[in-house]
Amino acid sequence: MTTAAPLLDVAGLTIQFPTGTPVIDFGFAVAEGETVAVVGESGSGKSLTALAIMRLLPRSAKIAAGRIRFAGRDLLALPEPEMRRVRGREIAMIFQEPMTSLNPVLTVGRQIAEVLRLHEGLSAEAARTRSIELLDLVRVADPHRRVDDYPHRLSGGMRQRVMIAMAVACRPHLLIADEPTTALDVTIQAQVLDLLDRLRRDLGMALVLITHDLGIVGQWADRVVVMYAGRRAEEAEAGILLDDPLHPYTRGLLAASPRLDTSLHYTAGPLREIPGSIASAIAQPGCPFVPRCPLALPSCRLKPPPLEEVRPGRFVACPVTTAGERADAVAVGR
Amino acid sequence: MPLLSVADLHTHFPTPQGTLRAVDGVSLTVAKGESVGLVGESGCGKSTLGKTVLRLVPPTSGEIVFAGEDIARLPAESLKPYRRRAQMIFQDPFGSLNPRHTIESILTAPLYVHGIGDRAERQKRVAAIIERVGLPLSALSRYPHEFSGGQRQRIGIARALILGPDLVICDEPVSALDLSIQAQILNLLVEMKREFNLSYLFISHDLSVIRYFADRVLVMYLGRIVESGTGADLWARPLHPYTRALIQAIPDPSRRRQAAPLGGDIASPQDLPRGCRFHPRCPIATAVCAERDPALETHAPGHQTACHHAGQLTRPPEA
pTM value? Predict the structure, then answer.
């Protein structure tokens, strides 16, 4: 990690709805050009965090605490007209289901051109030429023809490429991709992730990859933040997290995943389960993972565990684990 | 004799753009107590195959022999005994559970339709199955929307098993579930298999899940089986370039930032490529692949593939 100020710095973020608080004291940072994965299951608050960064939360939501700094500015304090310039131009976002994000009655060329005319003030003709270049950049075959197609004519993978073309049209510094490949087939998923990573390098973007897939994290992310019930459970370099997960939730997730490279088979025994569901986190005064945790102590139920840096760049919110880590460190004389 | 034996099955749909060949000449067997995995990407015809085997979709031609009887052409009214013995579990249990019915009424309906037991006997069976799939008896008086995705899939499993079937077709049963819940449902399906001596046709796009769950694996591409073998065979020695690409497409930390194994999109089943259906995307295709459709042939005991260049990793020199 560099010592320079991060491009994006989210700290203490708390998002409240009248019905509950789905994101609590959450934070992470993204350096220029870095890929950070935010991992969590549905209901973990990962998509709400992304929407908060874009200032696109639904009206019923309130940011009760925290700050979001981007390129030296406090995004939460920006007046809406300025935020509108940040959105799309400096920070762009793509979503899981490209069909619902594309307008079905406009050609894909029109939709890409709209971004360019709005943010870059291009003429209709220049915007069309640039749209074709962008389709080529995201490797849509035959872009001269495709530019006049309507979204329904395109496959799921092609639609996601069009979304990516729109997102990178103004060369943003940060691209937030919310489950960009979850709706796609495995071979297409690999193509789209490959494309995102190439654009990150070529355009010098940073990438926030929101996903539930730990395999994607390992192959494509530099760093990973594991989110559970609105809180940060663990953070580490991607390789380190997968090789040596510390939080009982991360450990449980990795143990519960069937893997190709093991001979794990149903005839040899059951998969390791994480019992219960994330719904049990609601109204826990202590650690939200307590109801499902194999290591929980009575003290875990009392107050939320603090996030501790157990090694440089390695954070975990589990006193039971950190106590074990300290004991290990003493034992080997570190 | 296998429990299920499908031979040269075709399911075609007429469309304004031409005939859609969803299932186009598939043969497979499922032995008693066997778990057969069927893997492929969306549009390959795997779900249509599952539904055709259950006669939820009419076959165009071919045989579906179940316990010695060809049910492919039985009239609908004669299918009732078969429906009792062959059931399906769907990907989205919410979409397959009537939101206006209580769980009790959803689970009682199959018993009622098949005239099983009196009221007391039906209640007893419903209570037994709901507890067996890991839900409390109090679940019976509630409605589908009151349950989480994992719980709804438990209800879907209970409904499929209440008639005591021999064959269960699972169509992407864990794809819509969070990772922490997937393992719970897979383990439950394994327990059910042992307890009720079930045979499974397990359909999934996820090779890792198939590897864990299947005794034998079929790889499907554009309406055809392109490779079949044991899980271990396929992972260690995939013979078809598509199988190899599927394996390599699974995100893997040991391949940091490695390029995608396969370009292009799956072709349309309304406009199938000539010759081998995979050849436009195939990294090792040669002239013959654009000409002749390869047949499914045995290359090693229990390991079959339909590829002119089976097992080759690079394109052979043109003859």
Answer: 0.89
